[in-house]
Design brief:
The complex is a heterodimer of chains A (861) and B (117).
Chain A: H1 2-7, H2 13-33, H3 36-76, H4 78-107, E1 118-125, E2 128-131, H5 135-144, E3 148-156, E4 159-163, E5 165-170, E6 173-175, H6 179-183, E7 189-190, E8 205-208, H7 210-217, E9 227-230, E10 233-240, E11 254-257, E12 274-279, H8 285-302, E13 311-316, H9 323-357, H10 359-367, H11 372-405, H12 423-451, H13 454-459, H14 466-501, E14 512-516, H15 527-543, E15 547-553, E16 564-566, E17 568-569, E18 581-587, H16 591-594, E19 599-602, E20 616-620, H17 621-627, E21 637-640, E22 643-651, E23 666-670, E24 686-691, H18 699-709, E25 716-720, H19 721-728, H20 730-764, H21 766-774, H22 779-811, H23 824-850, H24 854-860
Helix pairs in contact in A: 3-11, 4-9, 4-11, 4-12, 5-8, 9-12, 9-14, 9-20, 10-12, 11-12, 14-20, 14-22, 14-23, 15-18, 20-22, 20-23, 21-24, 22-23
Chain B: H1 13-24, E1 27-28, H2 29-39, H3 48-61, E2 64-67, E3 82-85, H4 87-109
Antiparallel strand pairs in B: 1-3, 2-3
Classes of the chains: A alpha+beta (861), B mainly alpha (117).
């Protein structure tokens, strides 16, 4: 019968206690009366079967009853239920969304087989921790290294696609033939590019991205073998990549091979290749790094002039993320956790108050014979319902906010823009809340139930107890601490954003329309042909009403941050290793005036600065400061971009590399002073138009003008200069908005926490206040007592909050754009705001306290 | 407890048989199992688990009650619990019988049951 007694444990304990003995006795009797072993076996089998079904049915009945009673109880206090649900929904939803994004960007493996073995390979130059590889160095690194299973290279390269509807500029990548085999992702359709496609003279082939295939070819499976025209050359489509293949970035729409010729390896300081390698199984990052360092050392000795100061480094592809982007996400995770902590604290306070308020109800129920265990089970059911319903709402919040937050997904990583909602993160946040709900909803109830009975009835509801009061006060203090930290960090980041936004980019941003017309080769190989195009477009654009200036440049500042060349001044051997570099841009006359870049001395380039005239250059002030400090720069010569140039003008500096980064000095060259077919990547393609009207209004007319100049010329990147500059602070702005929302929620919750606690305390101390007033205390004295309690809570939280905020700000210093982590203004504003919130939370309870009627209190005594 | 006997209809066969068994006399748990088996010619053999699940529910609904009246000590087993049908239980059993009667009448009119038994 031991086994039967064990099986009885399947039943609910109350049922087992009530009927267990009788059931065992009956079963024993049946066994005794059954004849033969076979019959006994049958009885045991039947007992097993009915035991499982009956036990399950009983458990379900109990659960259903508890569920009904819990829902009834929650509906009886809609204020509490709604508040708790709202807290759980917001906190878990926000945490699930932010942690999903952080996990997606910072932790989850990239979408390639054995992605941990993928690394980025860089050259290291003095002043540049990471620089692209030159083809010659890439070839030597690849040949000499043994740590890599394969080493490939690529670079972003946009081309003009014609023949598929409107001509368009499409972003793509030029790759070495082993790139795809390095990444090990098979094509969705057809095949990917291989070494044969990369051989000089091999047929021109192209692989399409899934999005280009869908958008321009309607997802047609017969696209393979068809021809597409890219920059006036026909390429055969050999494959389509899967939708989640976003290498090197989400913008990449096609891939073609370089087909390097021997000539391509001539320039060892022409760095434009991004290196990507796959480590051999078992090879470590450190091994690859030290091996490439040795290779770079050898190359430095072999090519002392070209490779002077050039070293090499290797980083994991997963870590190819700016510190700022990483910190930004970590900061948001921290803020989300703060909100979770505050929510849990508030929830705990809410549940504690509710369990205390229900002490009388529990006492009555226990007195009437209710089982304490049943009461606890019902409370647990209530908490579970709150957790689950809040969790369901949180999924909604997370799903709704993820697309907004996904703008924080860095562009440089080969991942999709929208992370799918991570169930693990949701469960984690839900788990934390469930623990809070159970710990603070059920644990106090256990104590209340233990004390429940006649004593509980006698004491009524006014039995807060010092233990409860202390834990509620600690929770409120914790809320204040966390909200002060959030307030200060948000304040500091707002100040940092303002500071960045107030940086003068060095050019005007208002009233500037920009767009790109990248002229394809070989059609526009000749400078004279390009000149014809520019002249036609610019002349007509300048005639448009409202237009005060229009000009072309190789690439606008902040749009392209590269194009950095070594500068040789007055025959002195100045090279890149000494940091003597400048950004090279070809411009048409009038560019400086169009963008409002001030000419300090001399003149702008002009239409007379042609190829058969002396080569001239306009340089920025920092260029002059570096090479000819305190000297007259006009008329001086320097060597730059393969030619000797004469300085004809000095202009203000612009932030080529963005608002927050230091930029190299700038050199502007005449668009006509370049030999045919040279420096093709630098031919002017970005058009800037200054207008007194809203810039967007010009778009249709400008499109028409360009179509008139060349009907096959695509137009891309149409945007205003304001949008380009705003893009610089976009991720900061989103981060700030999220932080402000979190901070507002946090400070509101902290205020509510103080209000809730003081309201409860006032209701407990009504007798005391009544007696005090009867003994002569004035209303002002009572008001002060409550106020003091509120301020004490606030100050208790404020002081550690300030310290913690300072420490957190130190960690985030690189995000603060020079704002000091101990910024006095932010700290004092946060302290004042915290105290104001406290006072607001204290006001209502304090007013309630002074309205206590001493006569009524004495009478009730 | 529900006031109207009809609100509990139709009864589960087990519940109805237990009510019938207790309608004759107060019985203890095992006696109910034996009585139901005898009454149904062995077609319905209640297991201990099913019996007590039904008993628990019938006690909650007020159809039966536990009685303290026990037989003479020499005839008694102290582990046994005795149950008695309540007035409400009787009313519910009668209501169920009436329901079954109406059903039978309908079945007869439709010719799916013989006109006489």
């Amino acid at each position: 019968m031991h086994l039967y007694r064990m099986l009885l444990h399947l039943y609910p304990s109350s049922y087992r206690a009530e009927y267990g003995d009788e059931m065992t006795a009956i079963f024993a009797q049946e066994l005794r009366q059954s004849g033969g072993e076979l019959a006994k076996c049958g009885l045991w089998l039947a007992a097993f079967a009915e035991m499982f079904s009956n036990a399950a049915a009983l458990h379900w009945e109990i659960a259903r009853r508890d569920l009904r009673s819990a829902i009834r109880s929650l509906l009886k206090s809609p204020g509490f239920t709604l508040t708790a649900l709202l807290l759980i929904t917001i906190a878990i939803g926000a945490n699930a969304a932010i942690f999903t994004l952080a996990d997606f960007v910072l932790v989850r493996p990239l979408p390639f087989p054995e992605a941990g073995r993928l690394v980025k390979v860089w050259e290291k130059h003095p002043g540049y921790a990471e620089m692209e590889l030159s083809p010659a160095n890439y070839r030597d690194f690849k040949a000499a290294s043994t740590s890599f299973a394969s080493l490939a290279a690529y670079s972003d390269f946009a081309m003009n696609l014609v023949g598929q509807g409107e001509p368009q500029r499409v972003e793509g990548a030029w790759v070495t033939g082993n790139l795809f085999s390095t990444l090990e992702r098979p094509a969705l359709l057809g095949r990917y590019l291989n070494e044969h496609d990369d051989e000089a003279g091999a047929p021109a082939t192209v692989v399409l991205s899934y999005s280009l295939w869908q958008a321009d070819f309607g997802g047609d499976a017969t696209v393979l073998g068809k021809s597409v025209i890219l920059d006036d050359k026909a390429y055969t489509v050999i494959g389509v990549m899967p939708p989640d293949f976003n290498f090197p970035s989400r913008e990449t729409l096609f891939w073609k091979t370089y087909q390097f010729q021997e000539d391509s390896y001539k320039e060892r300081d022409d760095n434009y290749l991004s290196g990507i390698g796959r480590l051999k199984p078992g090879a470590t990052l450190a091994e690859a790094r030290s091996e490439l360092t040795l290779v770079a050392d050898r190359l430095r000795q072999q090519y002392p002039k070209e490779n002077e100061g050039v070293a090499a480094t290797v980083n994991r592809l997963r870590d190819d993320l700016s510190t700022q982007a990483r910190l930004l996400l970590i900061a948001l995770c921290g803020a989300a956790l703060c909100v979770l902590v505050i929510t849990c604290a508030n929830l705990a306070n809410l549940l504690l108050a509710r369990s205390l308020a229900r002490q009388k109800e529990f006492s009555i129920r226990v007195s009437l014979g209710a089982n304490r265990r049943t009461l606890l089970r019902q409370l647990l059911t209530e908490s579970t319902i709150l957790g689950l319903a809040g969790g369901a709402g949180a999924i909604g919040v997370a799903v709704a906010t993820l697309p907004l937050l996904s703008r924080l997904t860095p562009h440089g990583l080969p991942i999709q823009e929208f992370p799918p909602l991570d169930l693990r993160m949701l469960l984690l946040a839900l788990g934390i809340t469930a623990i809070t709900v159970v710990a603070f909803g059920v644990a106090p109830a256990i104590r209340v139930c233990r004390n429940a009975g006649f004593s509980g009835l006698r004491e009524g509801v006014r039995t807060g107890g010092t233990g409860h009061h202390r834990s509620r006060s600690s929770l409120v203090i914790a809320e204040v601490v966390v909200s002060v930290v959030l307030l200060i960090l948000s304040g500091l980041l707002i100040r940092a954003l303002w500071k960045v936004q107030s940086i003068d980019p060095g050019f005007r941003t208002d009233g500037i329309l920009t767009l790109r017309t990248a002229l394809p080769l070989p059609k526009y190989d000749k400078t004279s042909v390009r000149r014809e195009f520019y002249t036609k477009v610019l002349t007509e654009v300048r005639r448009l009403p409202g237009v005060t200036g229009a000009a072309y440049i190789s690439a606008l500042p902040m749009v392209w941050r590269g194009g950095i060349w070594p500068v040789l001044v007055d025959g002195r051997s100045q090279n890149r290793s000494a940091g003597n570099t400048a950004s090279l841009r070809y411009v048409t006359p009038g560019f400086l005036a169009t963008l409002g870049i001030p000419i300090q001395s001399g003149r702008d380039v002009s239409e007379t600065d042609t190829f058969d005239h002396p080569f001239v250059a306009v340089v920025s002030e920092s260029f002059v400061r570096r090479y000819w400090p305190d000297e007259q720069p006009i008329g001086r010569h320097f060597n730059f971009g393969f030619h000797d140039r004469e300085v004809i003008g000095v202009v203000g500096d612009v932030h080529v590399r963005g608002l927050e980064r230091t930029s190299e000095p700038q050199v502007y060259l005449s668009y006509q002073q370049v030999p045919d077919g040279w420096l093709i990547g630098y031919t002017p393609k970005d058009l800037a138009i200054h207008t007194s009207q809203p810039p967007e209004r010009l778009i249709p007319e400008v499109r028409q003008i360009i179509a008139g100049a060349d009907p096959q010329q695509p137009i891309s990147n149409v945007r205003t200069m304001e949008e380009i500059v705003a893009g610089e602070t976009e991720s900061r702005t989103i981060q700030m908005r999220v932080l402000i929302t979190f901070t507002a929620v946090a400070i509101l919750l902290a205020g509510l926490g103080i209000y809730g606690l003081l309201s409860f305390t006032v209701s407990l101390r009504q007798q005391e206040f009544g007696i005090r007033m009867a003994l002569g205390a004035r209303q002002g004295d009572i008001f002060k007592i409550v106020l003091r309690q509120g301020v004490a809570l606030s100050v208790a939280g404020l002081l550690p909050g300030l310290a913690l905020a300072y420490l957190s700000a130190r960690l985030l210093e690189s995000l603060l754009a020079g704002v000091r982590p101990a910024d006095a203004l932010t700290f004092s504003a946060a302290a004042v705001l915290c105290l104001v919130t406290t006072l607001m939370g204290t006001l209502v309870p304090a007013l309630r306290a002074i309205r206590v009627d001493p006569t009524a209190v004495m009478r009730s005594e | 407890m529900t006031d109207r006997p009809e609100s509990l209809l139709p009864l589960q066969p087990t519940t109805f048989h237990i009510l019938l068994s207790l309608n004759d006399e107060d019985r203890h748990d095992y006696a109910i199992i034996l009585d139901v088996a005898r009454r149904t010619n062995g077609d319905l053999k209640l297991s201990a688990g099913t019996l007590y699940r039904s008993i628990q529910r019938m006690l909650e609904l007020g159809l039966i009650e536990e009685t303290t009246t026990r037989p003479a000590p020499e005839m008694d087993d102290e582990r046994r619990r005795y149950y008695r049908i309540t007035l409400f239980g009787t009313a519910v059993a009668q209501a169920e019988a009436g329901r079954l009667r109406s059903l039978l009448k309908m079945a007869r009119l439709c010719g799916v049951a013989p006109r006489t038994t």
